Amino acid sequence: MHAVILYVMLTLASFSGAGRATTFDHPSRDPWNTTGPTTHLACVSHARPSPKARAYIDRGMIVAHKTIPCYSEITVCNPRTKRCADAMVADWGPVHAAIDLYAPLSKRLQHNGDEPVVWADKHKMAQHAVPVM
User: Fold this and answer.
1) How does 51-78 read in b/e, with b if 16+ C-beta sit within 10 Å?
2) Is 65 inside a domain boundary?
3) How far apart are CA 23 and CA 45, in angstroms?
4) Is residue 133 part of a domain?
5) Could you read off the pLDDT of 68-93 as tens digits, one per residue?
6) Cis peptide bond upstream of 31, omega within 30
């Protein structure tokens, strides 16, 4: 089982990225997230989310990234815990890390707030999927 998870993580890293991840939360609970409570997600401020995007946002399965386009679906994995989860880009940033995980996503991955993760664009992964017979 661990070999399968390792294979998935390495495959994910080959499709998008890997790097240091930090955790952010709603401005009312996060002293580092100082923007207003209604505009704390950059993507939402610029374009109305689709129902699918709204579902990711409502569940807290969102990330902030500097170069992945808003509302892109990604899969994020924590190599330390061997946990993965689907998420959506809903914010821009972070400044001092490669990717920022919203608190509920961080909790699902058992992320410690400042450690490496790997991520991949779900659509790119689907395009390169190998059929199982």
Assistant:
1) eebeebbebbbbbbbeebebbbbbbbbb
2) yes
3) 20
4) no
5) 999 999 999 999 999 999 999 999 88
6) no
The pLDDT tens digits of the residues spanning 29-60 come to 766 665 544 456 888 877 889 999 999 999 99
Number of domains in the chain: 1
On average, the pLDDT of the chain sits at 81
The count of other CB atoms within 10 Å of the CB of residue 130 is 5
CATH of the domain at 84: 2.40.40.10
Domain that holds residue 114: 2-127
